[in-house]
Known about the structure:
about 35% strand
Amino acid sequence: MAKILLLGTWMAQPEPTREEINRRNADRLSFGGLSGQLEITGPRIEIDRRWIVNDRTWRHGMPRSVVEGQIERQTDDVFVVVDEPERRGRR
């Protein structure tokens, strides 16, 4: 599973954003994290730029938010993390 950890200070509006994130991702995500954090887990996680407070966090913080998974895309509008493909035959 892909997993990202967002700090509360990165989010424009934490609670409404959680609902929007879940809607955009077809309710396939689970949420957790400590107070002031938002941990998101799922097979594919899409984050809309408007949910993040500023451009610096968008450009530099979002790649560092990935706990598990692989960044599939980061544009001016969307950040997508997917489950890492299995590495068969590699050690």
